[in-house]
Amino acid sequence: MGLQGVARAHSDKPHAKGAAVKKEQKDWGIAGDAKATKRTIEVGMTDTMRFTPDRIEVRQGETVRFVVRNRGKVMHEFVIGTKAENVKHAEMMVKFPGMEHDEPYMAHVSPGKTGEIVWHFNRAGEFEFACLIAGHYQAGMVGTINVLAGGKG
Length: 153
Description:
By secondary structure, the protein is mostly beta strands. The chain has one helix and ten strands, in the order E-E-E-E-E-E-H-E-E-E-E. It has a single domain (30-148), classed as Sandwich (Immunoglobulin-like). It is 8% helix and 38% strand.
């Protein structure tokens, strides 16, 4: 039995650095190895509930380092997933705003701080990145990742 239905308290404190990364295959890829990154993409987050850029293109088989900067005054997060997963998770965050989640495809970034995700895109398709903090996703804080087929997976 997994921990899928478990809600834990979440604080504004950053998550521990150096913790072992859980490598679990998802529909949108798997946690990447930092040594395999060939490209870094910087993404800005603001209190206008927008990401810059809001559209990213990568190749299947590519491992990307996302450097996520919170330029706002409130907590934001950068979560990679499918539209269906993000909608479901956003609904849970509205019901349980203090819910903790710590996955390798998520970065919780305090105001003025920077977060980082290393992700290996081994499946082609169109995916989302979003801020799932209650109300942020609903306000349009979402972007698209288009993974082009044909790379090494």
